[in-house]
Amino acid sequence: KTLTMSLRALLPSVRLAHTLRPSLLAASCVLPSRALLHTQPTQQQPRRGYEWISEEAEHLIAKAYRRHKALTDTGKSFPPSLSVQDLDKLSVPIHYEPKTFSDRMALKTVAVLEKFMALFFREKYDHHAVTLETVASVPGFTAAFYRHLRSLRRMQRDYNWINPLLEEAENERMHLLIFMQMTQPNWLERLFVLGAQFSYLMAYTVTYGISPRIAHRMVGYLEEAAHRAYTDYLEAIRSGRIENKPAPQIAINYYRLSPNATLEDVVLHVRADENMHRDFNHQLSNTIKEKGLDTPPVFMSEEAEPELQSK
What is the pLDDT of residues 255-271, one digit of tens each? Predict the structure, then answer.
């Protein structure tokens, strides 16, 4: 009896809803279409992932870096070697302007380290290069280590960060092995390397644990310093202050250089690599800031030469 009385009480509401149903459906169909008539979507040009460098520089950096990466992946050298004129176009220093307080702190930290290195090595550019590469190999491996553990801990994909970071660390290690064929550090420099590598490893590990964005920004500025160091190295070779020796065989094999390649050719290719590391780490920092850690990075080669991606 109670159930029957409740159903009778609901009947007027049901009849009213049934009566209004066609009107509601019509309104739901009409209103959005009217809104669409008055809405004119604006088409915005997509922002380049590497907007702080020119498109020509992006093309050359990507082409230079992809040569030895293709060799590592497939055993084939593609695309063909860049000319000295092309590589010289990358001599212009590119600076990413700091936009936040943390960016400015990262820049100042690297500036202090760069001044200390310059005072220690002065014009011993070959010894400077050896020491620089022992430190430059640390960030890529450390970041890949963090990303690897994060992927395992969260039981999800890594969005293609680990392999490029490991490749960066391996590339820097190859630079070290190449320059070790040109010079041998003395005992004081070896002690300096031990202290610098340990200190930098501890500092970068803590920094990455706190803020990966700041850590990648710091590496970007560190690579800017590396570009300046190798530019000074080139000037010393071309001015005759450092002998332009024949390139070591390990460099000829790695970069697929001609048999009569020289130290100048090697330094040009190494500097091109540092350009890639510089801009890739700045781009990773921007990606983290704008889209978070669960976003694939933008690879320079995809923007510079999209027609080559299918090959």
Answer: 888 899 999 999 999 99
Residue 59 neighbours by CB under 8 Å, 6+ apart: 304, 305
Instruction: Give me the residues paired with residue 246 across strands.
Output: 262
Looking at the DSSP bridge assignments, the partners of residue 262 are 246
* Cα-Cα end-to-end distance for the chain: 78
At 254 the three-state DSSP class reads helix
Residue 100 near residue 201, CB atoms below 8 Å = no
- Judged by average pLDDT, the poorest of 10-24, 62-76, 262-276 is 10-24
Across the strands, what pairs with 102? none
Rounded Cα distance between 131 and 125, Å, is 10
CA nearest 90: which of 215, 282, 270?
270
Identify each DSSP E strand in the chain by its residue range.
none
- Which two tokens mark 232? 């000074």
3-state secondary structure (DSSP) of residue 159: coil
Q: How many CA atoms lie within 13 A of 210 on its CB side?
A: 9
Is-above-0.85 flag for pTM?
no
- Calculate the CA 143 to chain-centre distance: 11
Contact between 136 and 222 under an 8 Å Cβ cutoff? The reply is: yes
* pLDDT tens per residue, range 83-128: 777 788 788 888 999 999 999 999 999 999 888 877 777 778 888 8
**116 in helix, strand or coil?**
helix
Under 8 Å between Cβ of 308 and 301: yes
